[in-house]
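Entry 14. Structure prediction run on the chain below.
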Amino acid sequence: MKIVLAQERNGQPGQERTYEHQSVKVGRDPADCHLVFDQSEWPMVSRKHAEFRLKDNRCLIVDTNSSFGTFLDGQRVTEPTEVRTGSRVQFGAGGPIMRIVSLETMAAPAPKVDLGDLETRRDIEPAVSQPVSAPPPVAAPQPGQQPQRPVAPPQPPQAPPQQQRPVAPPPPQQAAPPPQPKPAPPSAPQQQPKQAQPPAARGGAPASSQPATI
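Output returned:
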């Protein structure tokens, strides 16, 4: 909320004061109030007299239990009441009068983002490379001091080797029996060659085996 107030003196507005808060507190307590009045000049103003409060985009004047009351355009305020530009608020009977010069209760709309323009900028803008951090410097060994050996990182625990079960030897193979000789087939009986018989002589006489004498 942005509210501009001007104090009236003899019916004439004085110097303008601008406040940009969700609530603007009025009173004599400088530690807690935004608009502070001097007690010696305005004794009718309480330490925490009233408050301009923003609610539902409306500016309300709220009396915070003041001793001499708060008045809006001459009417005493008994509950939160809306104020507008040009309203006159008086703090206590015969107290200071503040005129509302301008009032802004609506929040400024956020600028619209063109998605097409965003994609174009993303394509145009070069990628920013991440800086590569340099390794930490190694301290040089002091004189008379042995250089430290680099400590190897701890090795992860290894699983115990599995025990192999003994393999039983294969049973011995039995030797095959030697082949039995096959019995020879019975041989056929040998026939004796027949002797040629001399031809029989005609007339029934046997031919002589003796050669004929010439």
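The CA atoms of residues 119 and 125 lie 10 Å apart.
Filed with the rest of this week's runs.
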